[in-house]
Amino acid sequence: MKITFGTDYGCCFVELGKTRVMAQVSCELVAPKESRPNEGIMFFNIELSPMASPTFEQGRQSELSVKLNRQLERCLRNSKCIDTESLCVVSGEKVWQIRVDVHMLNHDGNLMDAASIAAITALCHFRRPDVGIQGDEVTVYSPEERDPIPLSIYHMPISVSFSFFQQGTYLLVDPCEREERVMDGLLMIAMNKHREICSIQSSGGIMLLKEQVMRCSKIASVKVSEITELISKALENDKKARKAGGRCGFAESMPQERITALKMDETPVEMTEVTDRANDIVQKAEAPSQTVPSPVVPVPGVGQVGQGLQNTWGLEEEDEEEENDNSGEDEEVKETKMEVEQHDKEGSKQEDVVEISDSEEEEVVILHPETPDKAPKHTGPSFHQKGAAASKKKQKK
Amino acid sequence: MGNVVQRRTRGALRRCPFEVCGNMAGLELLSDQGYRLDGRKATELRKVQARMGVFAQADGSAYLEQGNTKALAVVYGPHEMRGSRSRTRHDQAVINCQYSMATFSTAERKRRPHGDRKSTEMSLHLKQTFEAAVMTQLYPRSQIDIYVKILQSDGGNYSVCVNAATLAVIDAGIPMRDYVCACTVGFVDETPLADLCYAEESGGVSSLALALLPRGGQIALLQMDARLHQDHLEALIEAAMTACKGVSKVLDEVVRQHLQEVSVLTGE
């Protein structure tokens, strides 16, 4: 998991595996609600843009968006993690309205956790403008005049999601997108590092047992303390970087990528039994017959291209088939650049030229001085299907 | 039975003092003698009154009062998929829930009864709860509609909705695995309070809403807001489960009584 900050105060990026989420906090002065005249207002908004996943549509208010919005609201607002009374400027007239916008950039599962981490980190990172009150006058100082002050945060609620499979027999923490698609149900527990549970929400049509819930809460407390440490470290680093005057921000935090860099994922290659399988193959395969490195001249007048070793490019079955004599015609003798013809040295009159592997030349012949009547032409290379050529050879047998 | 309260509550009046005071310190949610605002003990539920078969048009309907919270639930189904045919599931019925509050249900007139985020969230939760409980495999490619309306809201909205909807589903004759009973419990002064009323809910008390299938002890939905220390979680869930079992007994009685009435009327 990676947390980075943008250039402005209150902008935070969170990468949870491949899920990427951005949160931005902004504030403005508004009139307060009538029922709460001396408290500030917090407003949360989660945007699921089609950029994150092809399943998200442009029109708002899909079920998932409502669910995430409500969960985030309950997690952060009802737990009273922010001191809203400190946001009051003039009671009954002007209070700060803090607005947290969370945007999903890439959906690879577990949007709720990433959103909650991003939101609370952005709130911790945010600085609001300082306000001065002289009598009836209220002056809002811009960041240049006076340093902006941070919000007063009581605690940091962080949500952890668990997904259930097969009627509760399997439990996974932090599901990725594929796991989310096939899960039976989801349990979200939001806790802070003081082991206080801020919110629990079960969704999906599963039945839980009390023991499962207790177990999940224990796992969640461990995870939350780790995550809280990570957040405080990230905030510390950012503060240091800003103090030192270094450049900070989203552009800086992206790793340097050259144009020639390959962006594809690494393909997992099965490497567990490579040595065993390699040994098997080596033992089962025939020993290469000709390991003589010196070039062998099959027939006078014929040069050889290659190193004199057995050709290993062709399929092994094809090799065995073609070791038989090519009786009769030998117009089609295949010769590739790295090919060696195996001979049957029994002394049959015709040369036993074996085509071992594919050649892209249609009619490749060897000029034999002693059989002038068969003076086939060496045709130019033409592209030919390997299979068709091979079948041509086989038909001759 | 100590669980089911037989007293009339004075819940409606209780809301006003709280709002006038505006702060929690002036109101004791749990007095020293262990009495709550409306005179109940910590584990007592409010009085439950219910009627089934309220409407003739619907396949199933029920009206339930829990203290001063009144809810009406109506079930249509199972019938053919209406609306988006693409949501038809070949092996199960689709459950469609809608939760709404009447504009006169709360102290201040509600300007937007449907479609706001809270209602949509409640509808989703109801749907999730009933998908777990109703035997949807028996009705493939069909749809079951559950509509719940709150007529008066005095705390525990979700729980009352679930209880009312359970009765309505039973009235409609749709088979379920078990009664779905729900209860909201809160935690004050190290004591769990069962079945919160509005004053207690808005007093910043951590509240837990639990929907339970009593016989197997399976939790269909668990939802909690506000801060609660982890160590108290177990006690709170236990209290919620006990309260739900109490509610299930009451619902069971209501169903049997209704069945008796109906069977008498048809002359069996």
From TrEMBL, chain B:
* Subcellular location per the Swiss-Prot or TrEMBL entry: Cytoplasm; Nucleus, Nucleolus; Nucleus, Nucleoplasm
List, for all copies, the residue spans of the domain called Exoribonuclease phosphorolytic.
Answer: 44-175, 178-242
Q: Describe the protein's quaternary organization and the partners it interacts with.
A: Component of the RNA exosome core complex (Exo-9), composed of EXOSC1, EXOSC2, EXOSC3, EXOSC4, EXOSC5, EXOSC6, EXOSC7, EXOSC8 and EXOSC9; within the complex interacts with EXOSC2, EXOSC7 and EXOSC9. The catalytically inactive RNA exosome core complex (Exo-9) associates with the catalytic subunit EXOSC10/RRP6. Exo-9 may associate with DIS3 to form the nucleolar exosome complex, or DIS3L to form the cytoplasmic exosome complex.
GO terms for cellular component: cytoplasmic exosome (RNase complex); nuclear exosome (RNase complex); nucleolus; nucleoplasm
Q: Kindly state a single biological-process term from the GO annotations of this entry.
A: rRNA catabolic process
According to its UniProt record, which protein family does this protein belong to?
A: Belongs to the RNase PH family.
Pfam families reported in the protein's UniProt record: RNase_PH (PF01138), RNase_PH_C (PF03725)
Gene label: EXOSC4
Identify this protein by name: Exosome complex component RRP41
Q: Which CDD domains match?
A: RNase_PH_RRP41
Record bears the keyword Cytoplasm: yes
Primary localization class, coarse: cytoplasm
Q: Which UniProt keywords apply?
A: Acetylation, Cytoplasm, Exosome, Nucleus, RNA-binding, rRNA processing
Matching entries from PANTHER family are given as: EXOSOME COMPLEX COMPONENT (PTHR11953), EXOSOME COMPLEX COMPONENT RRP41 (PTHR11953:SF0)
Give the source lineage, highest ranks first: Eukaryota, Metazoa, Chordata, Craniata, Vertebrata
Question: Could you state a single Gene Ontology molecular function term?
Answer: RNA binding
